Amino acid sequence: MRQLTSGDEWTIVQEGFDPEANRVYESLFSLGNGNFGGRGTHEEYYSGDSLPGNYLAGIYYPDPTRVGWWKNGYPEYFAKVLNAADWTPIDVVVDGERLDLASAVIDSYERRLHMRTAELERTFRATLTNGSRVQVSARRFLSMSRPDLGVIRYRIVVEAGSSIELSIGIDGDVTNEDSNYDAGFWDPVETAMWDRRGHVVLRTKKTGFVAGTAIDAVVTLNGEPITSPSTDIVDERSVATQVGIAVRPGDTIEIVKLGANVSSRTVDDVDIVGRCHQVLDDAVATGFDGLLAEHRAAWEHKWDISDVVIGGDLAAQQGLRFSMFQLQCTFTGVDPDLNIGPKGFTGEKYGGVTYWDTEAFCLRFYLAAAEASVSKNLLRYRYRQLGRAIENAAKLGFSGGAALYPMVTINGEECHNEWEITFEEIHRNGAIAFAVYDYLRSTGDRGYLLEGGLEVLVAIARFWAQRASFSELKQQYVILGVTGPNEYENNVDNNWYTNLMAQWTLRYANEAIDLARETDGAETDRLLSSIDFDESTERDQWKQIAEGLHFPEDADRGIFLQQGNYLDKELRTVDDLDPAERPIVHHWSWDRILRSCFIKQADVLQGLWVFEDRFDLDTLRVNFDFYEPRTVHESSLSPSVHAVLAVRLGRLAKAHEMLLRSARLDLDDVNADTRDGCHVTSMAGTWIAAVQGFGGHRVVDERLHVSPVLAPGWSTLAFQVHFRGTWLAIRADAGQVVVEHRDGPEVELLVHGSEVRVGPAVPVAVASQPTVHDRGTREREHLQRQSGI
Ligand code: BGC
Predict the structure, then answer these.
(1) Which residues are CB-neighbours of 220 under 8 A, at least 6 positions away?
(2) How far, in Å, from the CA of 604 to the mean position of ligand 1?
């Protein structure tokens, strides 16, 4: 495989310009600050292949669904976060010719992402066809301290040439490449440009969001401000200021361009222009250096509380930091209306909307590596959409306050147009319920049950209670017609993972009612009565279904079956596949894929991961040995789960292979699809593989566990953990594991199974162990009691 990038632990470097791979690099060099973000496109005009993208969090359009035969209950639209007006363009004309890297001779080119400080740097030297020559260095950041602000410093050193014309503007003539009907999504509202200041205001069709984009540009020649008059271009959707400058070889022109991106999601429509210019005025007053310093400080804090160090493995370290970098760019957790699209701000695919990925993967990262409020906002997002989830279930024929959360959503409504996925992947409801438990066990914040958690759990339990049906034949409850996490099997009966999730939710919802009562009995009763909860029948019904649910398994092989008929399939392994036919999704018919035994992503193994403490190592080993060789990992979410399980089994080489596959997925463009954007939600999986896999980080039975082991070749594994208000730094090498208390109350934790108490005084050291500590029977028995499995 051709190596796409170089760099070091903190930087990703593209050496040389490759027009063929330009979109891949644009994805890799994306930036974001939680509020907006965009692809790493060039500032100057580029006529080659490119996917411009500047996305404002939460600003979407309901693109009408495209299906052949409409059926009742289909979602009417596929929501997409829109490509918004582009604040970055700086067009450069040298001696009458436009600087365009598609036509110029590129003498040198380098793009560099500084992950520690979230700055994108690009330098190149180009000779134009008219013989003029320039060196350009551009630095861009999206302020982590000012959520509406982006900053560019663009320097041009003239080597040959006598005039430069700049056109510094906003391009509001933007589209989404993945539009279903090639529709335009924005209507123009207002444009203005004066004195190197300007703005473009657009309104989304249908959803009526208003987005204001404003710029301020300061141009200097050899350090002196250029005050000569500019020509202002004002179109219906775009604006620019044009400046002509007479130059001599050796001259340096510098443009500091500030971009404000403000939307009606946070500011009233009428105040948007004012707010844009306020953002710019404040930024001008602070100046480039001040803005950069505060942005760096904000990122320093993020890394300080979240960084993971892998010594002796640059590929893993770089990929892991890249993953954490993108997660931090995508979601900062300050706004419960925002969530994490599978591509973050790096591309259009998946529409920037919310999938089960958030609860099943991303939440784990934010729980351990950010303040509790960040995770709480992810939970509040779903709570605020509970009404819609109840409506969604009602559309499908459920009643009595049952909720089916959408597989894909931005506003709470289902908005995906693939039937097998939308209707049948009901397991997502389980992940959303489990997230409440995950949050509670990490934060200890039981009060959340009365702030929304319990309502969500009850509504989801009600759904499972109706969705399960009683089979006279089996004399058990069954859940028919589903798709499990493995999307390469559709409309199957009794997907083991889905049934496990359903069973767990039915039991935990029951338990949560008691927990909530312990916290505040009167409030719990008030809440349950507000949702017409029938204590005398519903709780018993949940128990009965949970007890009687069918779980397909093959006792001879000792495996759980992904679905009742899985063993009827021709049982081959991935090694039997012709490498030329992989990924199978690109080479096989859908019919062939559905009939095959090949598994897109962890499914039974996903269940063994989520509920790992219920199953002993032998059970895990047998199932892993059966399913792993049949898994093609064609979902980016898959390898990290296998990595965690492989660590538990002591198969560190396998776990390392899976960690790398997750960590390097985009940097090495493993699935040949990074051009569409980076796999941001699965980047949480990379963190999970490192910290929960190799680090053995868990919260079990109210207690924090760590149990770090080193992959072959690693000298160190160090990570930060936030647990119930305490911040810890864990560092393991071949000899010992050192736990350092960084902030918060003293805490007791288990390191390789030994209890240690850590407080502010001195770090605590425990001898290292070669394999991960199996958390043993105490916790397993507790969970088995809790779950009945
Ligand atoms: C996976 C889903 C996932 C989606 C978005 C699909 O390829 O199979 O599990 O939710 O991508 O990441």
Answers:
(1) 226, 253, 254
(2) 16
